[in-house]
Design goal:
Helix content: 40-55%
Distance between the termini: 49 Å
Largest sheet: 7 strands, parallel
Shape: globular
Strand order of the largest sheet: 3-2-1-4-5-6-8
Order of helices and strands: EHEEHEHEHEHEHEHEHHHH
Strand content: 5-15%
Number of strands: 9
Number of helices: 11
Length: 291
């Protein structure tokens, strides 16, 4: 069985590759440049906007893990890959979507994923769809905000999200790709705790030994800050996602945790454990820099 992995050099995709390697899968990785990707993995150089290179990468492949970056042409990229997989009669596609994609149609990258989901469901290629929540690991980038400014800056609101660990996402994807019983299934991937903005601040306060303040739900200010480090279209897209969290919530639905626990063979990882690991890593890095 040969699996083509797209997005395999990113935070989630790289972990999917590791999980597939643990299961002795034959992996081909679609990358934009030679030299990308881990050792021992077959590389296909191409671009999801180049159908010729995508078709070449899909030749001889049994399964496809389809993960698109959040980009303005995400829908086009996803449909090119899907259409070519269908043309070449790939036996199974695992598509990386997003939780509550059908309730966030005003968020650009959610809308793209929903359109791709709808296409996948319409035709005859066997599929599995995974729908992850907010990633725990998103907050690994918040070191300066938490340790220097002493704020938790992500506008998660008062209702909160069921943040999921990237390691659980990768494991779920690899299981769906390498074992039976997943055709036609859609898996909501959520963590075990509902985490509001104030709850996140309290977790980090305890771990860091200092008072961390939740910065609040000012979406105009959040978008303006995002524009300092991301293109304007991306800042707006992310703003709309977080605004959806505030308005509609992003907490796990009934049965989600039981289903994911059964799929993984263990309970999903807790945000607090991820945060504790991250705090230790930050402390070790600070010591290393000071030496």
């Amino acid at each position: 069985m040969k699996v083509l992995v797209t997005g395999g050099t990113g935070n989630v995709g790289a972990d999917v590759v590791k999980q597939l390697q643990k299961r002795k899968a034959d992996i081909r990785l679609l990358v934009r440049e030679e030299g990308a990707g881990p050792k021992g993995v077959e590389i296909a150089v191409g671009d999801l906007l180049d159908p010729v290179s995508v078709e070449k990468a899909l030749q001889g492949v049994d399964k496809l893990y389809l993960l698109n970056a959040v980009v303005p042409d995400e829908l086009t990229q996803g449909l090119i890959a899907y259409d070519l997989a269908r043309k070449l009669k790939v036996k199974h596609i695992v598509y990386h979507s997003v939780f509550r994609v059908d309730r966030f149609k005003d968020v650009p990258h959610f809308a793209s994923k929903l359109a791709i989901e709808n296409t996948i469901r319409e035709f005859d290629v066997p599929f599995t769809i995974i729908r992850p929540n907010y990633f725990n690991q998103n907050d690994a980038t918040l070191r300066d905000a938490l340790t220097q400014a002493k704020i938790y800056p992500m506008p998660l609101g008062q209702v909160g999200v069921s943040a999921v660990d990237i390691r659980d996402i990768a494991e779920a994807a690899a299981i769906a790709l390498t074992s039976d019983g997943h055709f036609g299934k859609t898996y909501n991937l959520n963590g075990p705790d509902v985490l509001s903005g104030p709850k996140m601040a309290s977790i980090w306060s305890r771990l860091l030994g200092k008072e961390i303040r939740y910065s609040g739900d000012d979406m105009d200010a959040f978008e303006e800050q995002m524009r300092e480090k991301a293109p304007s279209w991306s800042a707006f897209d992310i703003r709309m996602m977080f605004q959806g969290y505030l308005e509609r919530g992003f907490a796990a639905e009934a049965g989600d945790l039981q289903t994911l626990t059964q799929l993984l063979g263990h309970p999903p990882r807790r945000y607090e454990d991820f945060a504790a690991e991250t705090a230790v890593n930050w402390q070790a890095l600070a010591v290393a820099v000071s030496v």
